[in-house]
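ugh ok so i messed up the first submission bc i forgot one of the chains. this is the corrected input, ALL of the components this time, i swear. 1246 residues overall. if the numbers dont match what u have on ur side tell me asap before i send this to the collaborators (the ones from the other lab, u know who)
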Amino acid sequence: MRFIHTADWQLGKPFASLPTEVRNALDEARFDAIDAIGCAAAAHGAAHVLVAGDVFDTEHPSERTIGQAVQAMAAHPCHWWLLPGNHDSARNGGLWDRVDRWAGRFQQARITCLLEAVPHELEPGAWLLPAPLLHRHNLDDPTEAFDRMETPAGALRIGLAHGSIRDFGSRGEANNLLPPDRARRSALDYLALGDWHGALQVDERTWYAGTPEPDRFERDDPGQCLAVTLSPGAPPQVERVRTGRFQWLQRDWRIDSAADLLAETARLLAAADPGNALLRLTLAGMVTMADRLAIRDALVDDLAHRLRHLDLREGGLVASPTPEDLATLQREGMLGRAAALLHERIEAGGSDAPLARRALERLFVEAARAGDKA
Amino acid sequence: MSMIVRRVALDNFRKFRARHEIAGLAPGLNLVVAPNETGKSTLMEAVRAALFLRHKSTIALVRSFQPHGDDVAPEVELDFTIDGAPHALTKRFLKSAKVELTGPGGRVQGEAAEQRLQELFGFGQQSTKLNADTMGALGLLWVPQAEGLAPAVPGELVRSGLGGALQEETGALLGSAAFDRVRSQVDKDCTRWLTKTRKPTGELKQAADDVALAETELAAAVAAHARLEGTFDELERRREELRLLREELADPEGAARRADLASQLEQARAAAQLLATADQRLARTAAERERLQKLAERQAQLVQTEERHRADLARVQAERQGQGDTLTALRDRLAAGNAARAEARTMRDAARHALAAGQAQAAEHARAEALRRATDRLATLQALEAEQAALAERPGQTVDRTVLEELAALEGAMVQAQAALDAGAARVEYQGPAPLLADGAPLPHGEWLLTKEVRLDLGDGRTLWLRPPASLAGAEARLAEARGRHSALLAQHGAPNLPALREGDRIAREAAGELRALTARIAAATPADPLLELTAGPEALKRLLQGAAPDDGGDTAAPDVPALAQALDRAEQALAVADDRAVASQAALDEAATGDGQLAIAQARAQTELDRTCEELAAIAGDCADLPVRFAAANQAEAEALLAHDQAGRAAQVSDEGAIRRQIERADRERAAAEAKRGELERAIATLETTISLEGEKGLGERLATARQEEAAARALLDRLQLEADTVSLLRDVLDSAREELGRTIIGPVAKRAARHIGRILPGCAPSFDAALSLQGIHRNGVEEGCEHLSRGTQEQLAVLSRMAFAEMLGEQGHPVSLVLDDPLVWSDDLRLDAMIDLLEEVAGTMQVIVLTCRERAFRGMGGNRVELVAA
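and heres the new structure output, hopefully the right one now
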């Protein structure tokens, strides 16, 4: 049998710290991802989509978020199996009742909210064993219930759970820990996991699907889901299918000149789809004042406009005036003296130094502008 | 470095369509005198254009050099020496623009020539404008007409020139226009974010406000979310409670326990019934035993009472017997007392009558005595009245004392008046035949006194007037008046003269004294007598005795009234004693009678009590038959009932019905409460579910996440803007510090130099310069006066003086300097003008000074070289 394994949609995530236009695009992309998953299911002949938790970013999303999500799912003929994760745990009478209500409004929708740990027969000979999270934080292993779930002999057992494998240590959530050998212990043919936002194979039969549309600067990979083929007695065949639109890139560049920056930028732009890339760029290094100005121009006036969004962190980039820089200013009389005063402060160190450094940079910028005007 | 302009020629330049030149300019002082509108200022502009404007420039300023309406090439020639080296410059604008400079190093043209000029004069690249910043020292020192009033503002090049001049001394560098631009931009940025008092404004304030707003929204979102979460928790808790409660209600153990309790209750009820019956039996037997016991006690008590009543009756009867004898004796004594009292009363009445008769007789006797004394006083009265009549016959009458005194005074006045007449009047004596008429009457013979005006008729119509002195007229009148009054008074009192009048008065007064003595004696002889109802006075006495006969009964003796009164007192006392005795006997009898009555009552009471006790004894006699036997039987029955009761009590104690009932009630109550609680929980859960359904639709989770991120974003923006504001703020402070610092090192020497010149023209004044070396004003008597507040004359003088100072300093530092003043000192008074001319002459010793003026007279006294602008 074939199904799509996906997780961590995090619908309704706000991105409020980003500019409105970026925010809107990201928001839209999250719902587009559902459509992409539906299309992937059709393309791979999968009748079921198993969503391993964190469909929603919060237990209390807006009505619009639920409505849009259900509508997007209802547009595809596959059956959507939604598992409550730690972000959208199945508490009494909450979020999932609302999802059910919405699902009832679309006649063609095939959506099942897995609120109890009881097996469901997906199709003859294939059983889904869900381990829904009933609370945000669960100290007990929710997948322990798999051991008690009886299925007919010879039937495929597909586990669906949300949480961190214990071996992940601090990288996963501290709660909701799952044993790494759960698939073997509970005789599962496949364990579909959620929580880890990148696609990851834990063992032969255990996979994290990753998020279909990334929502943070974590890894460069675009969003994806997994198309899984199961046959009795054979290891699962897993294929990664791209669904995401945006790439969240992180770069830490150490540069010593404007030329370094330009080279790095060129490499980045060649490799990425800049219009759909968000970049968190952390700069470090020591450059001349002139280079500092050139770098600023290159980033602010060029790169920022090419990318979907640039999150620039340039605190580590130190512009240090060369003797020539200072000499240039000294020709300007009092400006030179002001630069010297700031330079003294920087050299003296202390809490004032970073501010003095910024002020000196600023002085160079303004002096350059004043020179241009003259 | 000395710079000397030797010659200037211009062609096709503004109004100079034909070639003009000014030649023969010498080192030191030069005076170019020309009337207005002859082109002095144009000349100066041409020199500046030649040096400082690029020959290829086609800017509006350059185009304006063409004479109006002509399409020609404005050209300027300038000969000058620098440090004695001669140079010749030719510059043509617009048409076939060219520049050529000939100097010791040979001839150069075009850009090379422009370059050479820059090097020679130390200005920046030739500009499109003529301004202080680009023209260097000469721009400052060549003062156009319109700028004569403006204080010297050294341009960037001059300042750096001066700075260079002072570099060795201070090691500092001066600022520039670039500084001003940077400073202005930084200031603009500062004011974009901070107010003058460094409070946030604009975007920064907006960002701070946004943070506050975001915080508020976040707090609201957190609260709303927490409420919803709380509702979830509450719902979960309630559902758990309900689950447990339902389990509890469905528990079969509860029902079994309830049935067991019901059966226990039935057993307990039966035991209680038995105990109640035993209780009743015990009560009954005990009551019978008690009744018999009380009956026996009552019988014994009645027997004792009967005996006591019989003894009481016998005692009272004996006492009453004794009391009868006492009563008889007392009655006898009372009869004797009453008889004695009647006798004493008779004796007292007789004594009272005797006293009344005696008193009447004594009164009669006293009246007769009084009448006799009145008769005696009447005789005395009659003798006195006879004496009174005799006195009335005496002559004389009393005169008022004032009349006598007035008469005496009148006589004195008459004597004085007569004496005056006798002394002052003229004596007239007529001897001759009569009649000579005086005032119509014949004049007597002999001597007479003339005391009034007299008309003498001398006959034949002749009249002689004799007039006494005026002083005598008053004396005569006073004499006549006194005499008249004197006679009238005497006549009024009927006396011939004053002595007779006085005698009469004395006799009359003596008689009156005697008469008063008699009247007193009469009054003494006629007193009042109440006994006879006689009032005082002679008339009353006469009326009383008129016709009364003398009483001769006065011989009888008066009775002894006090003796009679004593007899009455004794009779009264005897009566009182008899009364007391009778009353005492009556009281003793009354007391004895009362005692007897009480004994009679006691006797009756004792009899009654005895009768009642006997009756009661007789009544219970029947019931008391076989009493001891019956009492023993009753005791036995009670003991048996007690035993049975103890057994029933123990049985009842084993199963306490009340306790069981209470347990059942408690169990029932608990169940009812649990059921009520179940309903309550179901309702609460429904309410919570509704709340969750309603609140859940609000998307509070999303709202909270959004609020968190927005708050963080707002805060990040604020931090970024704040950092930006802090940066520009710091930069501004540092720029100011730099300017101040350098200002201090540069301004000092400049101000010192300028002060030397200014002090000569404006004694006691010191100049003050700002950081850009612009003259700000002067200090006079410790007060700072800004340039704009000074008089025009002073402003103009300061402008020239400060330029002299700059020129000297620049010259000393090797800059090519010459001072050109276009129409200067127009506002100066004569005194100041002379002082300024002196100073210019002095300065001209160290540099070339060219003064262009239209005021020939004003500068007539100034020495130096005089040149003229002429057409070549």
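quick check: Residues 4-174+773-871 of chain B form a domain with the Rossmann fold fold (CATH 3.40.50.300). that seems consistent at least. Residues 258 and 387 of chain B are 157 Å apart (CA to CA).
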